[in-house]
């Protein structure tokens, strides 16, 4: 990851300006009124104190992803956060100032200033032309797809048949196989995991009718997954009028993209019922038959607020429980445990014939070599007092434990930098030390090195940056939890990432897409061997 000054090329940043090239995320992309989140230049005067606009007041309609909220009416101010395309945030009835911004700087709720112009407007009629925003109540805030082939086009508008043929020479073959692709059955997704109001998982995944395309019988297909309610997509003409080029870019094979909605356009295809296109959060149009569903893993960590520590996660497949009798150990072939299963431990252990066994709270025994154990701490950092929230990340164990003071509340597996304990600045390792969360994004792009450069990672969910270039992030593209596989990031399951995002500081204001620690103190993050 790179420098995060305004206008610099950096892979980790909040969102993408409207119709920016997703496939070229690491090269950067700028919008006139939407510079990247970064520290503002020093200013002599404090920000003006102005009342927060009422929630039921007039709205500022956001046209570009990555629209910055500043602490003062100036691009030299300190960024407080960012807004995503389609957001409608309460604003002041009149501009506070017009310097540097002919359209006027408006105060937005709960605080800060946004320039009305290319990136945002006071015209409410444009709201119907914008994609729906993210669903913050779900493990994955959007439905996701990944490119089936190289060069999947990202159109800036609905392409006509001749234009599709030009841009997609193999179009006929893809349209002919669309039916078989649509009928493919899908399993459970991250969004099928039931959670309580805190985001804590409450049981195994359940395919509920209407959730991400599941029908009344709880069945989901590729076709139904990519079919959104008709109300989910609005007219696209105002978006198309903003750019001249037919394409904003292409997706490499395997690259992911979030979808805010989809529609069938019969005029755009010679096929009977027409061709389905998806709409990205930034307004691009992508052919659905070029995407495969990205459901996100249903695996997640464990709420330890009541059960406490120690807790173990089964490290491998084919692990069985053991019975210990008279100095002998006997495997119980009827008690096989799933890989990564969470097992609360009693804290008791025994060594039999040189092999250490840990006792579960249910009484059965497990070989220590088959487990990753999060032990009960006896020493704590000086700041771990009262209800102070902090995260304890162990690179050697590939675990994360969330604490409130000295009370553990959540435990899970992670995937950190693949070089594990090497020097982070010179390798694919996660930085070690004590940090605070500096910035949070509902979704943002990550450096493709996090996935060995094999594809682009757009719209990664629940990203929490604790050091420039280092962040906790949810995943929709893979499931390597428990193994060190990333570049610098600490990868989490979608369920875990959402739980920690809403639990940690700084708190995301309603309607915003990203927030910095200028809006509140960030949660402490301890990364250790």
TrEMBL record:
<dbReference type="InterPro" id="IPR050979">
    <property type="entry name" value="LD-transpeptidase"/>
</dbReference>
<dbReference type="GO" id="GO:0008360">
    <property type="term" value="P:regulation of cell shape"/>
</dbReference>
<keyword id="KW-0808">Transferase</keyword>
<feature type="region of interest" description="Disordered">
    <location>
        <begin position="36"/>
        <end position="57"/>
    </location>
</feature>
<feature type="domain" description="L,D-TPase catalytic">
    <location>
        <begin position="389"/>
        <end position="505"/>
    </location>
</feature>
<dbReference type="InterPro" id="IPR038063">
    <property type="entry name" value="Transpep_catalytic_dom"/>
</dbReference>
<comment type="pathway">
    <text>Cell wall biogenesis; peptidoglycan biosynthesis.</text>
</comment>
<comment type="similarity">
    <text>Belongs to the YkuD family.</text>
</comment>
<dbReference type="InterPro" id="IPR005490">
    <property type="entry name" value="LD_TPept_cat_dom"/>
</dbReference>
<keyword id="KW-0573">Peptidoglycan synthesis</keyword>
<protein>
    <submittedName>
        <fullName>L,D-transpeptidase</fullName>
    </submittedName>
</protein>
<dbReference type="GO" id="GO:0071972">
    <property type="term" value="F:peptidoglycan L,D-transpeptidase activity"/>
</dbReference>
<dbReference type="GO" id="GO:0016740">
    <property type="term" value="F:transferase activity"/>
</dbReference>
<keyword id="KW-0133">Cell shape</keyword>
<dbReference type="GO" id="GO:0071555">
    <property type="term" value="P:cell wall organization"/>
</dbReference>
<dbReference type="GO" id="GO:0005576">
    <property type="term" value="C:extracellular region"/>
</dbReference>
<dbReference type="Pfam" id="PF03734">
    <property type="entry name" value="YkuD"/>
</dbReference>
<dbReference type="GO" id="GO:0018104">
    <property type="term" value="P:peptidoglycan-protein cross-linking"/>
</dbReference>
<keyword id="KW-0961">Cell wall biogenesis/degradation</keyword>
